[in-house]
Amino acid sequence: MTGEELDADARAELRGLPKDLAARVARHLVMAGRMAEEDPELAYKHAKAARRLASRVGIVREAAGLAAYHAGEWADALAELRAARRLSTAEDAYLPIMADAERGLGRPERALDLIKSAEADRLDQMGRVELRIVESGVRRDLGQLDAAVVTLQIPELRDRRLRPWSARLFYAYADALVEAGREEEASDWFARAAAADRDGETDAAERYAELEGLEILDTEEIDGTIREAQAVVAVAEALTAVEEADDEAEDADGEAGDDADDADAFAEAVAADTGDDAAAVALAEVEAEKDAAEDEDAAEAGPLPATAIAFQPAEPEVVERVETPEEAPEPVVFREPEPKPGRDEPPAE
Fold first, then answer.
1. Could you tell me the pLDDT band of residue 87, with boundaries at 50, 70 and 90?
2. Which of 56, 69, 223, 226 sits 20 to 30 Å CA-CA off 107?
3. CA distance 174 to 209
């Protein structure tokens, strides 16, 4: 990791630092971003390290505030985000997080002050939706359950197209309905939230199942259980085949080898059908037991006496005869007899 993974806007804010220092800060910021969901505590440590190196850079204070928020450090999150607002031009974007941090500190009135501030009017659509979600939670904290429901009845709630905020908005609305005692409506909105939550950020499916009295089955766990059961059956059947082969071997030695081969073939077929490592282990166990049985039989029989060795005469050596094609006779040529010297030529007709 070099720090180049940081986005271009963030790197631009670090240009005022010396090159080596900027690289160190960038690496800490990258790690803080990567570990925010997986390990918030570690992410916050990286953000604090970056803050110690560059406390006058707005993007660094913003990262520290966000990391503190995810780690549940509400007071630190507020302090860092306030500093980021002073140092950065994108100050209004932090408003929903700051209001939620005030709520986390048990100060709903201060949260409402931020929600109703003039800065809230400058938020973009996503920021306004997030602020409404926070306000609904604040109303619930104050015991205003019906007001919490009404707060979320905004045009974005009825949008037929999925937006980046749809899953969170649907979930918050369903949660407010539950608190207001409207479980039937809440069940419908939890179902919508589950459908919109393609990344699994919420437990909407579980909440829906809980309200409907359903049980969610882990399909991966079920598949694993089925594979284990198939492997166990494969082991049992393969071992049974080996035992049957051994029993038949006591009556007829010639048939034992064939039965053992059948057991091996059966185990191999099971391994191919199940496609599981456990089936392969079963096949290995079958082969090991067969080899052990053969070794025990050899040990019980002991070495053969010298008189038990039968000598057989050597088989006569068969010499293959290589046949060569017969030579074809030369063709017979008949020639006309040559005239004897001194004899006149026959007269011409």
1. confident
2. 56
3. 13
